[in-house]
Amino acid sequence: MTKAAVISGIGSSVPASVVTNDMLAERLDTTDDWIRRLTGIQTRHWIEPGQATSDLAVEAGSRAIESAGGEPPQAVVLATITPDRPCPATAPEVASRLGLEGVAAFDVAAVCSGFVYGLATGTGLIAAGIAERVLVIGADTISTILDPTDRSTGVIFGDGAGAVMLRAGEADEPGALQALDLGSDGTGTDLITVPAGGSRQRSTKSVPPTTDTYLKMAGREVFRESVRRMVESCEAVLERTGWDAADVDRLVPHQANLRIMNSVADRLGMPRDRAVVDLDRVGNTSAASIPLALARAAAEGTVESGHRLLLTAFGGGLTWGSATLTWPDIKPV
């Protein structure tokens, strides 16, 4: 019988360094009030020189394993677009530093949708009988690819990592992922992109302008696409689960900005206060945003055992995805 993937533990990590809106306003010709009104963000965390994505992933992963009772996973799936280096993948190093000898470990690159893609991947590993337990981590250090002069991206992103442990279980138990929906549209590749550094640019042997090594985002188009795609994905996964929007206790969206999150809730016909909000303190943390939001909400009691959750994300690629589950009786460490 095919086993379900059940969330059994959760952990998170953010860098110690806090970056306030006022700190950014000094060099980006903006104000705390403008940033709050545009994004809903008050602070974010950025890594210090010498730190890397793996450092945050290891800490979040270790906490998720401890939260799940300490049993080690047989696979590690790391969702990130800011690996420690272009080659090799960062997940094997994370697994090694966690003391997981010989386990399957690999990266998933789906930008801000990465964690949902990681959940789907972990579900597949369990369903195929490859692993009984899978550690799924979303970790990004977007501060390392930000243009220090670009106000449109410089105020939005933060660094962080969140992780969950999946174990094989039954479909009707709390924590079991009920349904998943994934999608992509490669015609929107240039809407969220780092133009330089890949094979297309490198094959020309040209030296790219410095600005092409940083993240670029077409804000208005991304806003429009993200709301549409997340709403459509949510509707698809709710139908597969057999839920109506009114059945959902908490919407846990990718923490892009508050206006996008509110628009998704409005389009789904949900009260805005059902959406879990974490970006006010950590900003948009890309693949880490959903597990970070879950960890904070579980710690503070905003998400409780028995709550029916709808997770949804949108990212570069373009990619999107959603998932449903009933929250189990677990707490972050």
Describe this protein's structure.
It comes from Catenulispora acidiphila (strain DSM 44928 / JCM 14897 / NBRC 102108 / NRRL B-24433 / ID139908). The active site is at 112, 254, 284. This protein is of the alpha/beta class. The chain has 2 domains: 4-169, Peroxisomal Thiolase, Chain A, domain 1 (3-Layer(aba) Sandwich); 177-326, Thiolase/Chalcone synthase (Peroxisomal Thiolase, Chain A, domain 1, 3-Layer(aba) Sandwich), CATH 3.40.47. Helices cover 33% and strands 23% of the residues. The protein has helices at 21-28, 32-39, 53-67, 91-97, 114-127, 151-154, 199-202, 219-241, 258-268, 279-282, 289-300; strands at residues 4-13, 18-20, 43-45, 75-79, 104-108, 133-141, 159-169, 177-184, 192-193, 216-217, 250-253, 308-315, 319-326. It starts with a strand and ends in a 7-residue tail after the last strand.
